[in-house]
Predict the structure.
Amino acid sequence: MIIISQNLKISDNEIEVEQIPAQGPGGQNVNKVATAVHLRFDITASALPENCKQKLLKLNDNRLTKSGIIVIKSQCFRSFEKNKEEAINRLIRIIKSSFEPKRKRKPTKPPLSSNRKRLDHKTKHSLQKKMRKKLIIGKQAYE
């Protein structure tokens, strides 16, 4: 039983843990022992509340498949148990983040100094371009 909050728990049979060989350097331990973990959690088949399921399914996360399964890979540690614990902690963080309400953005104005700086730059640039033009006095053009 995995406890996410006081009134929200996930049973162990809802989580599928697969032991896989780890990638990268590690000597003979990598070649002999499969210590990495693939954790799979099916959102639609879980006992989570419906609003939590909807928020999780709307996540823009590459760990979420199109069929609504969260896949977490953990290979930080050299032991299977620690990697499994790390993967479960990541899953808990993902689920907890779906309960947090989104903060509303407060619209802000740019400071007056930046606005003034922008306008000064525009006037300097336009003067620079005006100075490049040919002066026309009467019918003669001066450069």
About this structure: The mean pLDDT is 85. The first helix runs from residue 28 to 32.
